[in-house]
Amino acid sequence: MALTRQLLRNDVLSALKTHIGNGSWRKTLPSERQLTDQFQVSRGTLRYALKILQNDGIIQSIPGSGYVITKRIKSEPHSVEVISIGILIGTQHGNQEARSLTWIPALQQRVAKRGWNLFVHEGIPEVSRSPETGLRKLFKSTNHMCWLLVRCPKNIQQVFNKQGIPAIICGSPYSEITLPSIDLNYQAIGRHAAGLLAAKGHKRIGYVRNRAAFPGDQECLNSFKSTLQKCLSKPSLKIIQHSSEFHDYGTILKQISSPTDPVTALFIDSPFQYLRVFTQALRAGIKIPDELSLISRHDIDFLHHLDPMPAFYEFNPKERAAKIHQILEERIQGDTLKNHQTLLIPEFTPGKSVVHKTI
Predict the structure, then answer these.
(1) Which class is 186-314 in CATH?
(2) Which of 69, 132, 237, 347 is the most exposed place for a label (fewest CB within 10 A)?
């Protein structure tokens, strides 16, 4: 057991030296959490290797700055260039988008087979406060050949777009952004959900969405609205906006029993908001789906344990990872892929939370 631990420590030490030598990290090392995730080792094993590098004068631990590279190691001649990929995770809305990151482990397995390294940069306050300044410092401390931008707001996308930094948007690009992107086909989701509810006879429908919307969120809403407008029954639409996981749906739930303007179905942008509506409806004595039909735009594990089983849209993380990997290969080979957009069609699980409205 001790021998295995020692071999693992030596492997980590060798990997750290390789990354420093080939320039994967320019001025500072990633955080300990990022390194343990990257090498899949314990913090104790990692710190053993870091201690040796400090003793050799290769790195120095500086409070507030992490591990700073103080001596550059020469790479071995004829060594193979190590390709480094950075994932930048920007704005987060609590736990709502946790499901959207399940493709990262699948991608990590794919790039590992190619001998590439994948580093996740998340929760960088300086990048959020001042994207240009924060990203300038991030670029100086890293040497990634390409970036994957996840939930990054417009001002961050603009910096990559303006400076021509190789990047792929894993989500929705904002207007005038020409970076390649891969996302779910939210227009198709909006069309399908609206058409389904209208076909089920629902004439007063609610759409629950986050106030801080990304372009894909708006595309879904626009598609949902336009589909309802084309329906012969002309269903009415009420938009309900939330800003946190603890939104109170008391007002909208009161409308369900209203004789003048009852809402009979809700399309909900997040599985967490679905659970919020579901639990509040149960407390109010509202029967799902008999009195209120529900559809979740996304899937998450806990939805499968609710009764009745929710209707939702889901994507295959491995399929998404494969598509991202394919675009990465092209981008690293030098293709600009300007305005190249890949849209994935999610699968719909009907569940038992939607019924035909007869009245």
Answers:
(1) alpha beta
(2) 347
